[in-house]
Amino acid sequence: MQTDKAEQYRELVEESQKSYRDNPDDHKNNKIELAALDTDICKEINLYTYWQGLGYAKKTPHIKYLLVGQDWGNPFLGRKDFLKRIISINNGSNEPYYEKAVFDTDDNLVELFKVLKDSEGKSYDIATKRYDDLFFTNFCLGYRKGKESGGMPKELMKRDAVFFKRLVAILEPENILCLGKRTFECVFEALCGDKTQKPEGFCGAYNVFIENYKPITAEYEENKNTRIFPLAHSGYMGIMNRINKKGTVDEGIEKQKEDWEKIAKQRG
User: Fold this and answer.
1) By C-alpha distance, which of 233, 267, 264 is closest to 124?
2) Of 38, 70, 119, 174, which has the maximum CB count within 10 A?
């Protein structure tokens, strides 16, 4: 089984990247153009996987938490040192993915993951450690050629839905943590089907939904289930939107920590 999962993962990485190279028109609209990175840069399913999930195919460990973001953005905008670090990791270095005070999203994730406990009952320290039971990816597997963020339509994201569902089937995660409303919706539809009725309360205000949703379970294969958790994005706008733009960033992070507490409480 371990060998099968390793091969399935490698094939998924290759096929998802090939999809962008062979069919570029399928991954763009009139505002956003997405592309795969060169094979000497990204050798995992996503750049985010270099933070948590690196080398999955070597051990195919059990995954407790699969973190899913929307899309990575444009890795070439003023980040040559970052890409050099990724290539260095590919060549066997132990350099970290995370660097403090570079991305607000990542800095805040470091704090939010402290709410959850690792296999030893300690708070996750994703700033300094890679954990076998964590895996990070973005739902959209392409990288922007233009501006870094904003304007990503659901329709463009969902062109990677088949790859995401295959990834979940390989990883078999206990829990999927979705950063942002659009990411949650894409994850839910990829695993449950486009025609499946949305969870109660989803069509209202997302903040209200985050606070009041009932446990959400998706059956991605026969007799194989995972829990899905709707969360606010951990970037600056996601933090401030969580408190309706009233208050401070610290207050927004504390509010999100309350959301993340539900994740630990629902595990069972």
Assistant:
1) 264
2) 70
Cβ–Cβ contacts within 10 Å for residue 77, how many?
Answer: 11
* 24 contact partners, CB below 8 Å, separation of at least 6: 33, 35
Q: Which amino acid is at 221?
A: E
Q: Which two tokens stand for residue 241?
A: 């939107």
As a whole number of angstroms, the distance between CA 266 and CA 184 comes to 17
Q: CA-CA distance, 149 to 134, in Å (whole number)?
A: 25
pTM assigned to the model: 0.96
Tens digit of each residue's pLDDT (9 = 90 or more) over 219-245: 998 889 999 999 999 999 999 999 999
DSSP state, residue 174: S
CA–CA distance, 159 with 234 (Å, rounded to integer): 24
| Dihedral sign of CA atoms 26, 27, 32, 34 in order | negative
The encoded tokens of residue 267 equal 């595990």
Which pairing describes strands 216-221 and 143-144: parallel, antiparallel, or unpaired? Answer: unpaired
Q: Which of 134, 170, 136 is nearest to 8 (CA)?
A: 170
Tell me the HSE value of 15 on the side-chain side, using a 13 A CA sphere. 12
**Over the stretch 183-204, which tens digit does the pLDDT of each residue have?**
999 999 999 988 788 999 999 9
- Encoded tokens for 177: 């943590």
Distance of CA 112 to the CA centre of its chain: 14
